[in-house]
Design goal:
Elements (H helix, E strand, L loop, with lengths): L1 H14 L2 E5 L25 E5 L12 H9 L26 H32 L16 E4 L4 E3 L7 E7 L6 H19 L7 E7 L7 H7 L8 E4 L2 H10 L4 E2 L13 E2 L3 E4 L5 E5 L5 H17 L7
Parallel strand pairs: 5-6, 6-7
Antiparallel strand pairs: 1-2, 3-4, 3-7, 5-10, 8-9, 10-11
Length: 316
């Protein structure tokens, strides 16, 4: 065996022969005939050695045998068969938490937990609402009362002057830089929305502006100031005592800075509310700064309809 290997190696080096191993190719015994019988491993039907010279050797086989030899050197499909991708049917395990059964149980449990907490939350809210003490109101707030003031045209008016209509009363001052104009604009928008949504209620609410700064807000000053707002506004002023009496009747707070020099500009601190009074001069509701014009219009319409449904009338 060693002699055979030595001779074969020399033959490859001298002739530039390349070895190629192929499966299922017949062994060319002529190459090894001079070296004696070939070893058993080389006579195996699954292994053969073909030698190809760098120079084109003379063809010893017929043209019909060449295709057979080329086919013999082709590898089997089974030997070099590529691995196919795994089937999608086996992406999820048959058992365990990631199996279809495990995922289904997880989703069912999650749905049960959400349902339980939702129902429990509703029951707790209902229980708290039942246990919450009911707040009842009796009577009406003591807001409103008698006053005597002067309007922007110099006419003396009292609280009875506006009886027969609803009145929307606001306390402020003409030199207010922002809050008073905003609130009076909102009052005008609410009246416009009320009359637009229900024309039958037009001119059933009288807007009234009462100054908290009688020292500067004369009838002429108020008349000029009201030109910026709703055309049906009535402005009222008077002496300091008259204004203070009206503010006290409506529970309005106002404060003027002490020791103000003549012609010195100043601000008046005051309550920011609009008071809705019914045609009998009784307090109905109050609207703060947080109530928008749309809310005021809707609420006034409801209050007026309640008053009319009770069989009472409103002057126009």
């Amino acid at each position: 065996m060693r002699a055979f290997g030595s001779v074969f190696s020399k033959a490859v080096r001298h002739t530039g022969v390349l070895g190629r191993v192929c499966q299922k190719s017949p062994l060319d015994a002529s190459v090894f005939s001079r070296f004696g019988p070939a070893p058993a491993i080389l006579r195996s039907p699954t292994l053969s050695i073909r030698a190809y010279s760098s120079e084109k050797p003379p063809s010893s086989s017929s043209p019909e045998e060449k295709p057979k030899q080329e086919e013999a050197c082709k590898p089997d499909d089974d030997t070099f068969n590529e691995k196919k991708p795994p089937s999608r049917d086996h992406l999820l395990p048959a058992t365990g938490p990631l199996s279809p059964i495990g995922i289904g149980l997880f989703l069912a449990t999650a749905a049960g937990i959400v349902y339980y907490f939702t129902v429990t939350k509703e029951r707790v809210a209902q229980k708290r609402a039942q246990e919450k003490p009911q707040i009842e109101t009796y009577g009406k707030a003591a807001i409103g009362g008698a006053y005597e003031l002067t309007d922007q045209n110099g006419n003396v008016v009292t609280d009875t002057t506006f009886r027969g209509k609803f009145a929307l009363v606001y306390f402020g001052f003409c030199h207010c830089p922002d809050i008073c104009p905003d609130e009076m604009d909102k009052m005008g928008d609410a009246l416009d929305a009320l009359e637009r949504d229900n024309p039958k209620l037009a001119d059933t609410v009288q807007p009234i502006f009462i100054t908290c700064d009688p020292q500067r807000d004369s009838p002429e000053a108020i008349k000029e100031y009201l030109k910026q707002f709703h055309p049906r506004f009535v402005g009222l002023t008077g002496s300091f005592d008259q204004v203070r009496k009206a503010c006290k009747a409506y529970r309005v707070y106002f404060s003027k800075p002490p020791k103000v020099a003549p012609n010195q500009d100043y601000l008046v601190d005051h309550s920011i509310f609009s008071y809705l009074m019914d045609p009998d001069g009784e307090f109905v509701d109050v609207y703060g700064k947080d109530k928008p014009a749309g809310f005021m219009a809707t609420d006034m319409e409801r209050r007026i309809n309640q008053y009319l449904d009770a069989g009472r009338t409103i002057e126009k």
